[in-house]
Design goal:
By secondary structure, the protein is mainly β. The protein is built from one helix and 24 strands. The protein has two domains: 201 residues, Exo-inulinase, domain 1 (Jelly Rolls); 71 residues, Immunoglobulin-like (Sandwich), CATH 2.60.40. The strands form four sheets. Strands 1, 2, 4, 5, 7, 12, 13, 14, 15 and 17 form a ten-stranded antiparallel sheet that branches. Strand 9 and strand 10 form a beta hairpin. The chain is elongated, with a radius of gyration of 20 Å. The two termini are 25 Å apart.
């Protein structure tokens, strides 16, 4: 991705939503070959020695969503790379990345709970999430925790987004695959209330998947915004019309896509109580609500 463009996008998101980026990794700064553990990459053994390179994600120039490099997971049951997300227990976060699964190949990852200081024994907070499991279901993915299935394309890059809500009583995740919500009802964490990381694993001899442009964000309200009780929207995910419930009359609304581009704006002398979203494509949107000189930005999935 062009760095100047990315900086513009990042500053826009920070200004609009209070997003604070934890991870931004496009793999361009690494040398080709196995990637030794970094600040946010490790492996299942948590062994940083070059003698353990087989488990690490491989920096490849075979495919790239942006630039010339991406991360490759393959080699049938050998690679087991962990993206560290910080052992988080509260807050709301979004992990996004682009993914490429060649025809005749499988992709795989899972969401891990607490990441210990030493070798992992495995705490699965999601099920095994497959893309064309065992090369037996081309174009079909599945989360084995819920048996929810979803569609994805082979031989092209497609976006994956996972929204984590660690403030909900059960802690949940919700995936959007190629612009379509995979699990309309957020899925409860399966094992513990901690978001530790994502395990990118070569689950079988069929596994070959590339990953690029990984971004992990945390969002929070600023001091001049509404409290969570002052304004709410529903349903979320939304199909066509998004209803707004607010203590103060809402007079203007701006809608931005995940890249920070404004896609819709509404202003009215009368209180705005709903938004027609039928013209917007499926995906994640940031709804900036303005009322009584206060703002709140709410993430909405369509």
């Amino acid at each position: 991705m062009n760095k100047n463009y990315f900086l513009t996008v990042l500053l826009t998101l920070l200004a609009l939503t209070g997003f604070s980026q934890i991870i931004d990794d496009d793999f361009e700064s690494y040398n080709l070959g196995p990637l030794l553990p970094t600040a946010h990459w490790t492996n299942w053994s948590q062994n940083s020695s070059a003698s353990n390179n087989a488990e690490n994600i491989i920096i490849s120039s075979t495919q790239a969503s942006s630039g010339t490099k991406s991360g490759l997971i393959g080699n049938g049951g050998i690679q087991d790379a962990i993206l560290l997300l910080g052992n988080l227990s509260s807050g709301q976060y979004t992990l996004e990345f682009n993914m490429y699964v060649p025809s005749g190949s499988e992709g795989y990852f899972n969401i891990q709970g607490t990441i210990p200081g030493g070798s992992l024994s495995g705490i699965w907070n999601s099920g095994d999430i497959y893309f064309n499991q065992g090369n037996a279901a081309p174009g079909v993915g599945i989360d084995l925790a819920t048996n929810v299935t979803f569609s994805f394309p082979h031989d092209v890059w497609f976006p994956v987004s996972i929204a984590f809500d660690l403030d909900s009583p059960s802690h949940t995740y919700q995936m959007t695959i190629n612009g379509t919500v995979a699990n309309p009802t957020p899925t409860d964490f399966q094992s513990d209330p901690i978001l530790g990381g994502v395990d990118f694993y070569s689950a079988s001899s069929s596994t070959t998947a590339f990953y690029d442009d990984i971004v992990f964000d945390v969002t929070s309200l600023s001091v001049d915004e509404f409290s969570k009780e002052d304004v709410s929207v529903y349903p979320n995910p939304v199909f066509d019309r998004l209803n707004i419930k607010s203590v103060s009359p809402v007079t203007s609304i701006s809608i931005f896509n995940i890249l920070g581009k404004k896609v819709k704006e509404i202003q009215s002398d009368n209180p705005i109580k709903e938004i027609d979203m039928t013209s917007l494509s499926n995906g994640i949107y940031l709804i900036k609500v303005n009322a009584n000189n206060k703002t709140q930005t709410i993430k909405v999935i369509k």
